[in-house]
Design a protein that fits this description.
about 475 residues, mainly alpha, Growth Hormone, Chain: A, EmrB-like, transmembrane transporter activity, MFS, transmembrane, membrane
Amino acid sequence: MRVETTHASAVATSTREKGIILTLLIATFVVILNETIMGVALPRLKDEFQVEASTVQWLTTAYLLVMAVLIPTTGFLIQRFSTRTLFLTAMGLFTFGTVAAAAAPGFEVLLVGRVFQAAGTALMLPLLMTVILVLVPMERRGAMMSTASMVISVAPAIGPALSGLIIQALSWRFMFIFVIPIALAVLAYGYLRLVNVGKLQAASLDRTSILLAAIGFGGLVYGFSRAGEPGSSLTEPIVLAAIGMGLVGIALFAWRQTRLSSPLLDLRVFRFPMFTLSVVLMMVVMVTLFASAILLPFYFQQIRQFNTLQTGLFLLPGGALMGFSGLFVGRIFDRSGPRMLVIGGMVLVVLALWQWTFLNATTSVIWLLSLHVIFSLGLACLFTPILTTGLNQLPQTLHSHGTAISNTLQQVAGAIGTALLITIMSAGQAQPGQTIAPNPLADLTIGIQNAFVVAAGIAVVGLVLALFLRRTGEPSGEPTFIH
């Protein structure tokens, strides 16, 4: 009788775990989808609201800024507030922002809506990762993190294609209208069914740390995002000032965290070598990801004259492959560890980026599509093993801080990568020994080739770092449900 009771309890717990994680996965998919859905719509919105290109770009820049400022606080928030509270807050903010954006009478309201959407997104992703680390035992964690990676990679992959389809056939407002019922349904389901996970910890909020984090990470992301805008560069005074202010802010923030008994971000996570290595590797991966996400659309739309829908559809197979590869990547990781997957994935990424350095106006689209599929498969082999290996080494008390730091630095890497690659692409300078290209399209082609050369070089650094990655041990602590 005792065995039967234990078995029933285990089944119930397993069912509850799946319900909690599924709810968070669906919510994460919805919020991340809106992170990339805006890009191809910016030209339409520029004409719709009759604003300058630098103004409409704030729909993306403000989103990144809010993410960069809020994510560093999620380590404290996850310790201090319950799972239900954070989930309902995140989805409430996101849903409110989506409704405001859909009904926006002018550009200012649309921008406010995007800010609220970003606030919800910033809370949701670290919450998902932390809950998985608390609930899922080591032997199944790779498979579950792979499922999360599948959701996180598929959403931004289908965002441009979905946005392109909507912009071609309907009003831009339907980018938000279609999301509202899904967001409301997820919010209602979470309110009715979601239970609290983990133990709350006493944590004090240091306002000075929040201010320094906002100045540091916000300044850095703004500076590099501004440098990546059309017509801007890394040498602009405002860009240099923002980056300089960001670096000083981050240095002061880090110094203060080491002197607080309850830091906003616990930097002791960097005492764990596999976590530190995983963070650096994820920053490398983010730069290479943006190389594909930024440079290929420029190539297809400016050089090959594809429209936004055709460009989005070209990127869709690779994104779908990244998602569905989660069905096997997690299982391989659970069985064999990270080395084979990460080294193999980096080799595929380097190969694809190297081949893209030769693209021109006559390169076969089929060959480019094949390379994008290879590139996407390589990325799929990287996300789950790198993230899981690093977070697995942390004790449970540092999980929330580890996920917050990892996500924050990924946002920073994305902003830096965007600015670096666009600056190189815009320079459009011929390689040594070549003559200057005779027309703007040839200039752009050379600029894209040069940007891919830099991305390939960064990927080679990642390949070298991958050689040092190894499986990490079991953290302490059992999952706890709070009623």
